[in-house]
């Protein structure tokens, strides 16, 4: 067990911590200490504070894994990451300083999964069931996808306009899983994020929620990263 980092898994929008269940089971079976906390996704600063709360409970070096908007949370830690030793992005946003998700989305038509979001009176964006099942989680077993839809965590739509500060990936080694069939974050955008951060990159023929539909591929990348950072401890 010597040299193995803790693993903290950060979920994205329209998912919750349970989306990591299959990956958590596999990591625990391999002997890793794993956390998959819940995030309210009402404001980026609050989500970052929540992540710092979880990080403060880790004993020793920690590897962060972010999916989708979870990549935004991980990135926004900036340079103040005392016990974080690496970042893994799973079909995630990996913005640079001065960028926002909104500016990125404005560069072209949204992914099909984002075409019909329902923003409620409190400003939270919910994904309709048809888009959730057939776009967001298109390669997930339908029974499981419906459960995911039932527990979806909406995103405060104001979050897309929040501007990134100095990104954490500038000072930490990074790994990136590009979802080749992603209908939420365009695969080419993911490739651009990965290239810019100099991430060790793999591409998987999966839709957006790779940790649900392809947990073994996600596990493999996380373990590769964990072994790499563990070797430097």
Task: Describe the fold and architecture.
- This protein is α/β, with parallel strands linked by helices and 233 residues long.
- It has 9 helices and 9 strands.
- The strands form 2 sheets. The protein has a 6-stranded parallel sheet, with helices on both faces. Strands 5-6-7 form a 3-stranded antiparallel sheet, with no helix packed on it.
Which structural traits does this protein have?
9 helices; alpha/beta; 233 residues; globular; three-stranded antiparallel β-sheet; six-stranded parallel β-sheet
Q: What's the SSE blueprint?
A:
Blueprint: E1 6-10, H1 21-29, E2 34-35, H2 44-56, E3 62-67, H3 69-75, E4 84-90, H4 101-105, E5 118-119, E6 124-126, H5 129-136, H6 142-150, E7 155-156, E8 174-179, H7 187-197, E9 200-204, H8 210-213, H9 215-230
Parallel strand pairs: 1-2, 1-3, 3-4, 4-8, 8-9
Antiparallel strand pairs: 5-6, 6-7
Model regions low in confidence, pLDDT < 50 over at least 5 residues: none
Number of helices: 9
Helix vs. strand class: alpha/beta
Tell me roughly what share of residues is in helical segments.
25-40%
Question: What's the gyration radius in Å?
Answer: 16 Å
Task: Output the helix-strand order.
Answer: EHEHEHEHEEHHEEHEHH
Averaged pLDDT: 96
The neighbouring-strand order within the major sheet is: 2-1-3-4-8-9
Shape: globular
* Percent of sequence in beta strands: 15-25%
Main sheet characteristics = 6 strands, parallel
- End-to-end distance: 12 Å
What is the number of beta strands? 9
């Amino acid at each position: 067990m010597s040299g193995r980092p803790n693993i903290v898994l950060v979920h994205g929008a329209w998912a919750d911590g349970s989306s990591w269940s299959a990956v958590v089971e596999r990591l625990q079976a391999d002997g890793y200490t794993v956390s998959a906390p819940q995030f309210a996704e009402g404001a980026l600063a609050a989500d970052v504070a929540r992540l710092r709360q979880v990080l403060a409970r880790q004993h020793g070096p920690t590897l962060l894994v972010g999916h989708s908007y979870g990549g935004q949370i991980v990135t926004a830690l900036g340079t103040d990451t005392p016990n974080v030793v690496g970042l893994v992005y799973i079909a995630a946003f990996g913005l640079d300083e001065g960028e926002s998700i909104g500016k990125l989305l404005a560069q072209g038509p949204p992914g099909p999964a984002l075409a019909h979001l329902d923003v409620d009176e409190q400003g939270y964006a919910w994904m309709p069931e048809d888009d959730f099942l057939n776009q967001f989680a298109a390669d997930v077993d339908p029974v499981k996808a419906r459960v995911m839809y039932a527990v979806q965590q909406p995103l405060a739509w104001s979050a897309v306009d929040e501007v990134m500060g100095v990104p954490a990936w500038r000072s930490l080694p990074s790994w990136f899983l590009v979802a080749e069939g992603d209908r939420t974050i365009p695969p080419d955008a993911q490739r651009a994020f990965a290239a810019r951060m100099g991430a060790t990159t793999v591409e998987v023929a999966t839709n957006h929620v790779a940790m649900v539909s392809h947990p073994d591929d996600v596990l493999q990348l996380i373990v590769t990263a964990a072994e790499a950072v563990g070797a430097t401890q």
